[in-house]
């Protein structure tokens, strides 16, 4: 497993936190995520993600299903930043 930290901005933090879309899209692929909220920036959030491998994550992020989930969750894709644990 590979551990990642992913950050991005969202339109509505409470909606993003409550959404089941992350689990629906990523769960079946063996990807788990813990949510984090930036206490200084009101719409900045993050995820600590465990993925089987980076290729799996890249494939799912490029899918129409992930794009629809991000849109539903109010994710601002241009702010997406992925860091890999070293």
Describe this structure as you would to a colleague.
With 86 residues, the chain is of the alpha+beta class. It has a single domain (2-84), classed as Alpha-Beta Plaits (2-Layer Sandwich). The chain contains 4 helices and 4 strands. The protein has helices spanning 13-18, 21-26, 54-61, 64-73, and strands spanning 2-10, 32-37, 44-51, 75-84. Strands 2-3-1-4 form a 4-stranded antiparallel sheet. The radius of gyration is 12 Å and the shape is globular. The mean pLDDT is 96.
Task: Please tag this protein with its features.
4 helices; 4-stranded antiparallel β-sheet; alpha+beta
How many structural domains? 1
Secondary-structure element string: EHHEEHHE
Mind telling me the CATH superfamily name?
A: Ribosomal protein S10
Q: Could you give the order of strands across the largest sheet?
A: 2-3-1-4
As for the CATH topology, it is Alpha-Beta Plaits
Shape: globular
Secondary-structure-based class equals alpha+beta
| Proportion of helical residues | 25-40%
- Number of helices, where a helix is a run of at least 4 consecutive DSSP H or I residues: 4
Largest sheet geometry: 4 strands, antiparallel
Radius of gyration, in angstroms, nearest whole number: 12 Å
Assigned CATH architecture? 2-Layer Sandwich
| Percent of residues in β-strands | 35-45%
Low-confidence stretches: none
| Distance from first to last alpha carbon | 12 Å
How many beta-strand runs?
4
What oligomeric arrangement do these chains adopt?
A: single chain
For the residues shown, what is the average pLDDT?
Answer: 96
Mind telling me the CATH class? Alpha Beta
């Amino acid at each position: 497993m590979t551990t990642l930290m992913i950050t991005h901005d969202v339109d509505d933090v409470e909606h993003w936190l409550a959404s089941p879309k992350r689990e629906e899209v990523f769960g079946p692929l063996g990807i788990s995520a813990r949510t984090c909220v930036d206490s200084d920036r009101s719409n900045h959030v993050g995820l600590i993600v465990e993925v089987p491998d980076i290729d799996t994550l890249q494939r799912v992020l490029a899918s129409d299903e992930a794009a629809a989930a991000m849109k539903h969750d109010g994710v601002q894709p241009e702010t997406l930043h992925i860091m890999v644990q070293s």
